[in-house]
């Protein structure tokens, strides 16, 4: 059996924002950065492929669905 496994995936994304130093110094810190990071956020397929399995690994009875991971954080430097 042959299937069309064409897909488009957003694998890694990191977005961050550094608070202006003038605001950070008001609370006695040098730098403040807020960020979001994610892995395997979404995937587009042509409809023939089941989006619950990782097409990079292949699909078989022993394969596991890929997982999504989200991280939020604040980086503060004193």
Descriptive notes:
It contains one helix and three strands; from the N terminus they run E-H-E-E. The chain is mainly β. The protein has one helix at residues 21-26, and strands spanning 7-18, 31-45, 69-77. The chain has one domain (7-77). The protein has a three-stranded antiparallel sheet.
Domain count, please report it: 1
Strand order of the largest sheet: 1-2-3
3D shape = rod-shaped
Number of helices: 1
Query: What structural category do the secondary elements indicate?
Result: mainly beta
User: pLDDT under 50 segments (min length 5)?
Assistant: none
What attributes characterize this protein structure?
mainly beta, rod-shaped, three-stranded antiparallel beta sheet, 3 strands
In a few lines, what is going on in this structure?
The protein is mostly beta strands and 78 residues long. Helix content is 8%, strand content 46%. The chain has one domain (7-77).
List the helices and strands and how they pair.
Blueprint: E1 7-18, H1 21-26, E2 31-45, E3 69-77
Antiparallel strand pairs: 1-2, 2-3
């Amino acid at each position: 059996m042959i299937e069309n496994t064409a897909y488009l995936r957003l694998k890694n994304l990191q977005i961050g924002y550094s608070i202006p130093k003038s605001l950070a110094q008001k609370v006695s810190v040098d730098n403040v950065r807020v960020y979001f990071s994610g892995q395997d956020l979404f995937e587009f397929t042509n409809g023939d492929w089941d989006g619950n399995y990782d097409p990079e690994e292949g699909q078989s009875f022993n394969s596991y669905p890929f997982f999504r991971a989200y991280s939020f954080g604040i980086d503060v430097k004193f």
